[in-house]
From TrEMBL:
GO term, biological process aspect, one: positive regulation of JNK cascade
Record's GO cellular component terms: cytosol
Species in which this protein is naturally found: Muntiacus reevesi (Reeves' muntjac)
Designated name of the protein: Protein kinase domain-containing protein
SUPFAM superfamilies: Protein kinase-like (PK-like) (SSF56112)
Domain Protein kinase: 1-135
Record-linked InterPro entries: Kinase-like_dom_sf, Prot_kinase_dom, STE20_Ser-Thr_kinase
Lineage, highest ranks first: Eukaryota, Metazoa, Chordata, Craniata, Vertebrata
């Protein structure tokens, strides 16, 4: 928010929440503890709470990137109208969320579909996603920043009207 409002166009911001971070084991690269912010939580993370014998790996972060992309595109994460416990139930049992607007590029929609694969064993890794055409085709960062600025300005204006 600071970078956007102060017009530092070359500021690189990272989206992190170390309050809910966890280290993935180097031995097998998996976790089985339930930790995270409900609306961004991958189904496999929620599943670990229901069955402690299950585990998940770093691909849960790819799901969270998809949720964050939906939030950036629509101004709010999916299911934010639900209570956190209700959201956890829906994430686990319903189909994966999608971007509501069809006004986004096919590459963005494909990127989102890959991020939102419910079975994490079939979800691409973050390294794979970095090679996705949606990410690879970003040649002019200035153009991306201007597009985001225009889009975020629209979202801010909508929120101010409410």
């Amino acid at each position: 928010r600071y970078g956007y409002h102060t017009k530092y166009l070359h500021l690189i911001q990272k989206i992190l929440d170390f309050g809910v971070s966890a280290q993935v084991s180097r031995i097998n690269g998996r976790r089985n503890s339930f930790i995270g912010t409900p609306y961004w939580m991958a189904p496999e993370v929620i599943d670990c709470d229901e069955d402690p014998r299950r585990s998940y790996d770093y691909r849960s972060d790819v799901w969270s990137v998809g949720i964050t992309a939906i939030e950036m595109a629509e101004g709010a994460p999916p299911l934010c109208n639900l209570q956190p416990l209700e959201a956890l139930f829906v994430i686990l049992r319903e189909s994966a969320p999608k971007v509501k607007s069809s006004g986004w590029s096919r590459k963005f929609h494909d990127f989102m579909e890959k991020c939102m694969i419910k079975n994490f064993l079939f979800r691409p890794t973050s390294a794979n996603m970095l090679h996705h055409p949606f990410v690879q085709n970003i040649k002019n960062e200035g153009h991306v920043v201007e597009s985001l600025k225009k889009h975020l300005t629209g979202i801010i204006k909508k929120r101010q009207k409410k």
